[in-house]
Amino acid sequence: MNRIIFIIIIGLFSQLATSQHTLSKKYNLMPWPQEIQENNSKFKIKETLTLVILGKDSEGRVQKAATKFLRRLAERTGVFIDTGFPVKNPKAAIKIDFQTVSDLTIHQDESYRLNIKNDEVLIQAKTDVGALRALETLLQLAMHTNSENYFPGVTVQDTPRFVWRGLMIDVARHFQPIAVIKRNLDAMASVKLNVFHWHLTDDQGFRVESNTYPKLQELASDGLYYTQAQIKDIVKYASDLGIRVIPEFDVPGHASALLTAYPELGSKDNYKYSIERYAGVFNPTLNPIKEETYVFLENLFTEIAPLFPDAYFHIGGDENEGKHWTENKEIEKFKKQQQLKTNHDLQTFFNIRLEKILKKLGKKLMGWDEIMTPTMPTTAVIHSWRGTNEGLQSSTLIEAAKKGYNTVLSNGYYIDRLLSVKHHYTVDPIGDAVLTKEERTRILGAEATMWSELVTPLTIDSRIWPRTAAIAERYWSAKEVNNIDDMLRRLEKVSLYLEELGITHIRNKDVILRNMTKGKDISSLTTLSNICEPLKVYSRNKGGTEYKSFSPFTLFADACVVDAKDAVIFNKNTAKFTDTNDIKSYSIINAYLVRWTENHEAFLEISKNPILQPLKPLSKNLAAVSELLHTSLQTKKITQEEVDQCKNDIKQLTKPFADTELVIVDALQKLLFYCEAKYLIKQ
Amino acid sequence: MNRIIFIIIIGLFSQLATSQHTLSKKYNLMPWPQEIQENNSKFKIKETLTLVILGKDSEGRVQKAATKFLRRLAERTGVFIDTGFPVKNPKAAIKIDFQTVSDLTIHQDESYRLNIKNDEVLIQAKTDVGALRALETLLQLAMHTNSENYFPGVTVQDTPRFVWRGLMIDVARHFQPIAVIKRNLDAMASVKLNVFHWHLTDDQGFRVESNTYPKLQELASDGLYYTQAQIKDIVKYASDLGIRVIPEFDVPGHASALLTAYPELGSKDNYKYSIERYAGVFNPTLNPIKEETYVFLENLFTEIAPLFPDAYFHIGGDENEGKHWTENKEIEKFKKQQQLKTNHDLQTFFNIRLEKILKKLGKKLMGWDEIMTPTMPTTAVIHSWRGTNEGLQSSTLIEAAKKGYNTVLSNGYYIDRLLSVKHHYTVDPIGDAVLTKEERTRILGAEATMWSELVTPLTIDSRIWPRTAAIAERYWSAKEVNNIDDMLRRLEKVSLYLEELGITHIRNKDVILRNMTKGKDISSLTTLSNICEPLKVYSRNKGGTEYKSFSPFTLFADACVVDAKDAVIFNKNTAKFTDTNDIKSYSIINAYLVRWTENHEAFLEISKNPILQPLKPLSKNLAAVSELLHTSLQTKKITQEEVDQCKNDIKQLTKPFADTELVIVDALQKLLFYCEAKYLIKQ
Fold first, then answer.
1. Which of A389-393, B8-12, B547-551 has the lowest mean pLDDT?
2. What pLDDT score does A682 carry?
3. CA–CA separation, B70 vs B468, rounded Å?
4. Cβ distance of B552 and A492 shorter than 8 Å
5. Residue B30 in contact with residue B140, Cβ under 8 Å?
6. Distance from the CA of A596 to the CA of which of A124, A654, B19, B146 falls in 20 to 30 A?
7. Using CA atoms, how far apart are residues A384 and A252, in angstroms rounded to an integer?
8. What 8-state DSSP symbol labels residue B610?
């Protein structure tokens, strides 16, 4: 290569990289697009704005999305857009063009080009779904000055990194009504997720109406299930958003509810199956050696499968220890006859039969990674969920791809573990793995998983969002888009856009707090909740027996969220102050310490209520520690007695309170060390 | 009568009256029951609480309600009730007994008796629906000390004053999804309303799926309609709550949407009918002289009527000026032939034909009071909506009852007029009218009406609630239950109970404000919104042409609510202070004046946004007036110049800002008069 050209190219690249970084501070896009360039123009959002669909919109997806786009734009900006529907006039200012209607398979094309100029916005895409993705980008670009709303002049060229970008919602542990599903589908589409994995059955409930086996809804759902009409409605709703729906019917384990309805299919005779009320891994398991089991599943799937047009069908297959198999002599005998050495081999036997049933129905079998046994055919799709937390060296994803399976990753994206958004954002599906082109192609993508043991319709949104928006960026955007501060800045804006779509992650916090104070002033609880996070990694419900499915989820922990906002600020400033004595940080810290000192009195005012009693020691010790640190930092003095007292109080604060943890404890500790090191009065 | 006995009886009565008044300060019941007595016991709400249904619950209503009761009780109190479903054990602590299952007609018995003792709660009712009403009373009685939750020992004997206690929701002007309807049904049941009047069609949309006439949903709904499965679901949901559903198909006027789909049924040939986007009274009207019109309606109603098991069927019939009739020569000719003098006579001709169709379908015709013409048979039910606002001397209710019609009142209960709860609460359906027993019986009850020109799913709850809870009390409780302060105190609590049921009247305010500030601090807007109310009596949308159905309803006015809470306090205290120089009132006033003075700076911080510009003069003038009044009250001085300036500023504040009115203007004026009278410095 000519050296000069080479230098120019390198120059262009680094310029592009810099400019991308500058742009990502300016525009609230998430996921960040593959390419974006400014063009010095400005499209004003005015009453006269019109929009035309140029592509042949035979599915009606763009008509719906464009109409919603006009509503959302009007509602966000307050502009009274005079023409509330797409027009037929090809000269309309916003033009949406696309070539074909997507078939909504994993190979659908979602790429698009968006060009915003002074008097025209042009969207071009291969498919209608690509056009939908572009509309979401456009909406995120809406900006304003003091006096006008506008789209900035940019050209965006975009396409996803992974074809499978999903969110799983478990509706078995806690049923989630249609409205919850729909608003989450809207939110998913807004951040370009394209797979809704619907975990429909588990020990705690079977949530689908069956005409063939009506006892499923009658006896195994507590009356909380989706009718087939509702399922069709959801699938259509998702399709309109360019989202595929993958149903999951978890077998042969996680079957307590199913076996409550049809105990004759269980692995233990005369066992009293009942809908499970606790969380955990349970023993009720389908009997894999009874022909009736396969007849049942074939009939059921034959009835259910047509409701779900997608080619993929998830059969769960996880966490089956086979305890009831081992306890059943007939099953043990069968294993010997069939030379199935372990229960895992028996499960593979079961899975292979299932795959044949599904194949007849035109479906591809997908299952959690336990199904990946040596004899399992590579036609199955492996859903990788286990990793280091389960004692493995890494996730099973790369192994699956190398073994020839198509595969999807969820390890690292278990949002119900309530870890920081940073954690999930930094999990790259492929990471540094060295893969052949074929192996890389087999990694379809990834899914965030919202297990619902500890969430209800009141709280589920605050467990999914906004973190899943950042995860969606991980799935869509280039691997190199990984600046955390930048992501956090954009996420704050995107969080508000999610609220527009009806997501309740912000608004329902106060609902819980108002119930706790019975209408009294909630501000002291708000103050506490902004530095407390719900216990992580399932420690809130150790052993699964503290909470039943019908226990109250209207407690302090339910009002708290991950990445507690005041804690984030306080911890950051404490680190800065103790490292560099930064004065601005000091004043921020100081304001917090004063607030927390004074908060206890306000808390006592409103806390005459049993539901608030568990918070009293937290509030009290926090006030004591804050007051002491505040005074010490102000007076630049601290006695040994005070240090000891403060250490003791901080120790109290390390304990969980009301199923939450105070996530500023380390920072308080750090401040105490600072005071002790600098201001200790030698006596 | 023996004089001593007479005195004792009088004594008992006055004692009862006093004690009722004392009790209503103690218990958060709404509607207030007919009888309540304390019995000095206390039923503790503990983990071990169990509940049994003793009556034969063949419809499953009580099972559902009791299960929900357990959830709601756990969620409100935070008590981990260990048994989450009704048990079979007749010794369970809460016993629910009833004799029969309600047929859900207007004559159903909803009475109940509730007896709370130390270790037992006993509910007794004639019907399952009566038992449901009792469960709501019980839930409202839940109280707590610092350390425990309990039901107070009381005996309640209760029955409604009116058999028809309704809420109408208009889903035509703005479509309301299933989730909105369901949560409002829950809320209705919680305050013992028993009729959901579903205004399903109007100029702006036809919201019901028809298989016979599919163009109705295809061309007349913008894709926003209920499927028949969804309608069945809602009707069942309502039935489970003991709520009857009355559908309204508004004919022959209010027919723009219907005629968009089937223009051949219109009164004007070659007229280009289209779905109406504005609000108001429009001319498109069914053609009453075409046989096809009746064939259409008969076919449609034959298809639709079975979805609604209730005997009553509302045909609207309001606001038909008959302009298109007069303009149609054939129709004029027909009128002459049939000796129908006026268009009202022609409409009666139409209504009588309709009544025959409905009768065949087993339905009773109900219509707005325009249908009450001299020739209309008394088999029709008159829905009285017009009154003094429409130039009448009083509502048409008493007239209808006297003429022999069964009748329901809505005049005085138009909650979309955005008047104070006090206004609606003081409207008694019968008032001082002198009626015979028969006439009284014909007054079935009343309905609050939520017309939806200016509400969306985001805001509708805040327009219905909490005011409708007080209205529900007017319909259920004795006429003598009419103390406004007492009602307001209880309403504040009931408002929180409504929030538990998913009603968004409180939470969605901040959603709107967050959108307006784009995530910046909303407190300055909150301050303003707590003293501003949306323009009343349809003056927000004069002539119906400012807002189209797809205009943004995410504006400041949409965040504001009736009975703005700080205004209520400020106005009350200003009155007290200017009358009596009350010091406590002064300090409250003073705190508000300081807050409003300082608020402007905070407002300027966040207002760099087009959507907030209309509020700037409000914020600024309010700050100026507040500062001046504050200073004058403090220094006990005011100059003529200041008085003039302040008068001028107050004058500015009397204008609407951003479709709201500042509802403290009179109080500010009063304070200025006070200062002027007392502190004017003679120069």
1. B8-12
2. 82
3. 25
4. no
5. yes
6. B146
7. 18
8. G
Distance CA A659, CA A662 (A): 10
Mean predicted confidence (pLDDT) in A666-673: 98
Task: Inspect the interface and report whether the beta carbons of B549 and A514 lie closer than 8 Å.
Answer: no
Per DSSP, the residues of A309-326 read -SSEEEEE--S---HHHH
CA gap B257, B200 in Å, rounded: 11
The rounded Cα A526 to chain-centroid distance in angstroms is 24
CA dihedral angle for residue B399, residue B401, residue B405, residue B408, rounded to 10 degrees: 100
Cα–Cα nearest to B255, from B197, B211, B309, B318: B318
DSSP3 helix / strand / coil % (chain B, rounded to 5): 45, 15, 35
Q: Provide the pLDDT for residue A1.
A: 46
A-chain CB neighbours of B150 within 8 Å are none
Strand partners, A206: A201
**pLDDT over 90 (residue A20):** no
Q: A64 contacts in B (CB within 8 Å)?
A: 223
Q: Among B64, B76, B228, which Cα is nearest to B144's?
A: B76
Name the pairing type of β-strands B94-100 and B121-127.
Answer: parallel
Upper half-sphere CA count for residue B671 (Cβ side, 13 Å): 30
Q: Is the pLDDT of residue B267 over 60?
A: yes
Q: Is A534 helix (H, G, I), strand (E, B) or coil?
A: strand
Q: If pLDDT is split at 50, 70 and 90, which confidence band does A22 have?
A: confident
Residues B355-396 have pLDDT tens digits of: 999 999 999 999 999 999 999 999 999 999 999 889 898 889
The verdict on whether B500 is a catalytic residue reads: no
What's the pLDDT tens digit per position in B92-103? 999 999 999 999
Does the distance separating the beta carbons of A552 and B515 come in below 8 Å? no
Residues 6+ apart with CB under 8 A from A369: A318, A382, A383, A384, A385, A386, A396, A400
Alpha-carbon distances, residue A678 vs A504, A635, A644, B622 (angstroms):
46, 12, 16, 50
ipTM score of the complex?
Answer: 0.95
User: Which single residue is written with the structure tokens 């609880």?
Assistant: A525
Averaged confidence pLDDT in chain B: 96
Residue of A73, A228, A515, A659 to mutate when probing chain B, most B C-beta within 10 A: A515
Distant-in-sequence, close-in-space partners of A516: CB < 8 Å, separation ≥ 6? A522, A525, A554, A555, A556, A559, A609, A611, A612, B78
Whether the Cβ atoms of residue B495 and residue B469 lie closer than 8 Å to each other: yes
Across the range A522-544, mean pLDDT stands at: 95
The C-alpha of B195 sits at a distance from chain A's nearest C-alpha, in angstroms, of: 24
H/E segment holding residue B146 = none
How much of chain B, in percent, has pLDDT values that exceed 90? 94
Residue whose tokens read 């508004």: B250
How confident is the model over A540-572, as pLDDT tens digits? 998 888 999 999 999 999 999 999 999 999 999
Residue A186 token pair: 């809207």
How far are the Cα atoms of A95, B516, B547 from residue A48, in angstroms, in the given order?
Answer: 14, 22, 15
Using CB atoms, pick whichever of B81, B515, B553 lies closest to residue A500.
B515
Q: Quick one: tokens of A40?
A: 């010095």
Residue ranges in B397-459 assigned as alpha helix (H): 397-403, 421-425, 437-442
What's residue B1's pLDDT? 45
A552 and B277 within 8 Å at the Cβ level: the answer is: no
Mutation target among B27, B488, B550 for the A interface, most CBs of A within 10 A: B550
What distance, in Å, lies between the first and last C-alpha atoms of chain B?
Answer: 74
Residues of B with CB below 8 A from A145's CB?
608, 610
Using the beta-carbon criterion (under 8 Å), do B552 and A515 form an inter-chain contact?
Answer: no
From CA A587, how far away is CA A593, in angstroms rounded?
10
